[in-house]
Amino acid sequence: MADAARDDAALPLPAAIAAALEEDIVFGRLHPRERLIEEELAERFRATRHTVRQALAELERMRLIERIPHRGALVKAYSPEEVRQLYALREMLETQAAALIPLPLAGDALAPLHALQQQHAAAVAEGDTRAVFRADLAFHRALYAHCGNLFLAETIEELGQRAQVIRYANLRSQASMEWARDEHAAMLGALRAGDRAALLALCVAHFRPAREAYLGQHPTLLA
Amino acid sequence: MADAARDDAALPLPAAIAAALEEDIVFGRLHPRERLIEEELAERFRATRHTVRQALAELERMRLIERIPHRGALVKAYSPEEVRQLYALREMLETQAAALIPLPLAGDALAPLHALQQQHAAAVAEGDTRAVFRADLAFHRALYAHCGNLFLAETIEELGQRAQVIRYANLRSQASMEWARDEHAAMLGALRAGDRAALLALCVAHFRPAREAYLGQHPTLLA
DNA sequence: GTCAACGGCATTGTCGACAATCCCGTCGCC
DNA sequence: GGCGACGGGATTGTCGACAATGCCGTTGAC
């Protein structure tokens, strides 16, 4: 079990608890199938059980946990086949979205993306994995927001959330974080240059490795 | 405001309330922007406010309503531009899914679909719009379940739910219900014959009209 | 006459306590 | 010795009451 609540004060309490648990799941401090007990969490976060309950509902909405009536909440586990299907859909959507981004991207549209990329790079440099995680999410959201279709962008984000355990398993290796950083930079270059083919290739190449690594590491996870 | 709770007993109470409200929204008994007041609903469904709250959370998850903290729940409204984007994504996903269904579909895979189509046809014959609505949902879910990608099927269903107000605005016209029925039959034919081109054409043609009708009818709905 | 501050009312959000459910070890019967 | 019924303990679900919030009409000052 992980350490106590991080002070993400300022955001509503249930959201803060959900965020903390989300990180616990992403960073493997809570493993698939592990049970989440409301009262324990309430104590850990010094909140009422009611508040914890709301946080669990939020995590269920994000599909990071599964709740079985009268039985409680489990960290969700994906079978290799599910991972393959999830990634197939993500690839299809992200490819489509990348194809829809107007190119070249105007300078004032590029600036915020660039700022996010810098944030990500800084977090990588400091080895602050939590910040890397958040910055990476923000970068990808901002990137696909430019596809011009609100629903497509939302769907991509939701599926990305579901895949978090897989996507961010590599946050333990400095090398792969640096890889991601450099690919982000390359994407910005393609956006600026208006090089559609390069952008598409980068988007696909960007998330394939995580899938492979996960499937290699959990070869026969039954579920 | 609509009439009292329908006896969808047997399913958990919050789900039953959510289903009833869902139908109210789909059939236009609750219009976009209309406010949902917890206590009124509690009285109407003879449930506690707590139960109603859960139902609202469920409807929010389905994106049929919007909840603003301390201000309550509103039936969600879509601007014409949002409708266009939503439909663009739906078209893309349903086309892809239809392209992935293995053809021709084996007989024992066809049978359940056929049964659902019959249910739909029966409901159309009786003019039971509620049943038509439910049967149509079931038919499409079963159809796209055959695409072989769980997540794609789920995503299609979720986006379909979000589009319900648009999709089912035509349930007030007997003619369009009969149209839908005939198209379902044609889809089954294409599945059986293994005619991919026909299947794709049907899937696209099947939901375009609802979009046009909605956009025509709500020409400048601000939002 | 206009505008800002106040206060009452409708509504939503949270709490603590209690009820319902399920898992699992124990007992008794065959 | 195996197996089903029973029951205790842990855990989740629900309730009624109370607190917090925001809207809106009213008031009063300038």
Automatic annotation (TrEMBL), chains A, B:
Keyword Transcription: yes
Entry superkingdom: Bacteria
InterPro entries in alphabetical order: GntR_C, TF_FadR/GntR_C, Tscrpt_reg_HTH_GntR, WH-like_DNA-bd_sf, WH_DNA-bd_sf
Keyword terms of this UniProt record: DNA-binding, Transcription, Transcription regulation
Residue ranges of domain HTH gntR-type in the record: 11-78
Pfam families per UniProt: FCD, GntR
GO molecular function terms attached to this record: DNA binding; DNA-binding transcription factor activity
SMART domains (alphabetical): FCD, HTH_GNTR
Protein's name according to its UniProt entry: GntR family transcriptional regulator
